[in-house]
Amino acid sequence: MVTDLVIKNSRLVIPGTGIVDAGLAVENGRISVIAREANLPKGDKTIDAKGNFVLPGAIDPHTHVNAFKPFGEAYVKETQAAANGGITTVGVYFRTDKSYDDVFAENRKHADSVAMTDTLFHFGLINDLHLNEMPKYLSKFGVASFKIYFAGVPEVGVLANDDGFVFEALGRAAALGPPAVVNIHAENGEIVEYIKSHISHDRRDLAAWSETSPNFTEAEIVTRASTYAKIRNAPIYFVHLNTKEGVEAVLEAKAKHPKIWVETCPHYLTVSKDDDTDYKVGKLGKTAPPLREKESLEKLWWGLASGVIDTVGTDHLPVRKEQRLLDKDIWECFVAWQGLETMLPVLLFEGVNKNRLSLQRVAEVSSMNTAKAFGLYPKKGTIAIGSDADLVIVDLNKKVKVGPEILRGTADFTLYDGKTFTGWPTMTILRGNVTMEEGKIVGKAGTGKYLPRGSAAK
Ligand SMILES: [Zn+2]
Hints:
The chain has helices at residues 71-84, 101-113, 128-141, 163-176, 189-198, 206-211, 216-232, 244-256, 266-270, 294-306, 343-352, 359-373; strands spanning 2-8, 11-14, 18-21, 23-27, 30-35, 42-48, 53-56, 58-63, 87-94, 118-124, 145-149, 181-185, 236-241, 260-264, 311-312, 391-401, 420-430, 433-437, 440-441. By secondary structure, it is an alpha/beta fold. The strands form 3 sheets. The protein has an 8-stranded parallel β-sheet. A 7-stranded mixed β-sheet has the order 3-2-7-16-17-18-19, covered by helices on one side. The longest helix has 17 residues, at 216-232. The structure holds zinc ion. Zinc ion binds at residues 62, 64, 239, 315.
């Protein structure tokens, strides 16, 4: 028997299980055999992993690649960027105040034709039309995740939902059943607006921006939203958790309501409002929600290691440096955040190589839990027979100097500019197709496909 692809000389990092010295075979884009090298079939193509670790392909569930450019245009480059960073599935947030019928029809075809990763869509819930159409979004489009905001992000045109609307949305999601989930931006927007209008604008430091959204505004919403979700028996997914108080609130909320998923982002794990970590970023650190102090960073790492935090997503919003208006003061320069390509490298270098996370835990927070939260498991998120052959080979000893010259996305800057990371993805494989090899994009645009969820996936 000759199979399509064989990976040998590898150590498989299987989330939820452990690390095994084994290779694998791929047939028709799926893993068909996992075995010791002697027992592997012959392949049309054989990849020698050179003793390196193989993880399930990383999933970045949280991007706004379409914030400033049409999705189809932005997505070509951004999915190359994703492949460059070991990512095989990307989640994209869409937002319109009309029906999502047209948004879906228009953008699904791009996800099927230009991408180098697979794609899942999330829809923002803004009005009653959206609430009424949720069953259609799930059954016809396979969109199972719906975003609500307790705080707006006026800089990118997002307004907050009120509590009554949120409560209703949670009820509707619960009625749909799995894999429907409500994604929640946890920040008390009314408090943030109040502080923004009272804080001295003579302040010019990065910390002043963070002080407009004190840590408690996150924790308070985590508790409040979890209370509503428990009453509604609705699954919820907190995006971009970023404070130590938030971690504590999640710990308590999860004890009361089991259907809570929690995500944090690489920038909250690596850069601080006081600019006192290894990465000095200045006004590039103006993000929403804002950066926090060092204690929160360490608490987030603890949360990831301990299971309080389930996933990592980037909140990637690709812009050029000139769009950040960095010559203006902290109030006027542009708020943005990015990090698609460096998500997995941050977990490898700052996580594994600094003993904050095990490699198995990296596979869980970058892939398995994300696939479970969004109804893609076990097609995605693991290394198992029958699962899609979405894989990333990582070399924990590879040193890479980070800078815009090695990045493939729209952003011409990185928070980690000039720093050398140890630990880097060396090959990305999407359903058996190599998309990135040693920093070179070798896949074809259009290899990636849209991923319908729920009954629409059948
Ligand atoms: Zn976001």
